[in-house]
């Protein structure tokens, strides 16, 4: 389950209530993403809070964009989070889809490439290994809880990116806009082949999609409202055009059927993305997730 971090008017009570309910529920992972030029909480600050608010569930960033950060400071922040949560951290990394986030922090948009990301991953791994990468007296710490650093997944929907990431990632943190199972299976097959060619164990295969639970037109309207708010860098008429087929809306039984179809193509994990911070949406989704625990 993904935290509702992209919803408006959040506060500590809402975030903590969702985090503790997810931790108490049947979920395998608690996820949240990063944006800069938006009104969401800072991804790395929230990692500290989520480490304190939860005890069991894996904490998964979907995704952090390393090109928006100094790689040494990012490595230090993630190692700290990994230490605080007792090794429950999985770091999803992506190049990001918005130039405005790069501009907001003064990052070079020419680094918005897989090579740019891989170079920063290499620096972070050197930090986590305890290597002195500067002339400092001591290496940059703390040591992460997990030897070698947190598990790394690549956030992408493209086969070329997946192949490139097989050199450093242990899994795929994908997203599907239209829940196209054929397309999703094709991407998973690309990952399986790339990891095998690299002589690595089979990758962890995850995907995600927006959801809204209910009956009638309400759930689809909820998804539409969320997309209008979240996709604020895209012209509104384009968002309106894709809204009827983006994400998922329906009843609990229908969601369970969708999740079973994803399981049939070998999906290890579906990371649901809420389109409302209403706790009733989480409660209803939890009832469905319990069937798969």
From TrEMBL:
Residues 16-252 form the Luciferase-like domain. The keyword Kinase does not apply. InterPro entries: Luciferase-like_dom, Luciferase-like_sf, SsuD_RutA_monooxygenase. Residues 138-157 are annotated as: Disordered. Keywords: Flavoprotein, FMN, Monooxygenase, Oxidoreductase. This is LLM class flavin-dependent oxidoreductase. The lineage of its organism: Bacteria, Bacillati, Actinomycetota, Actinomycetes, Mycobacteriales.
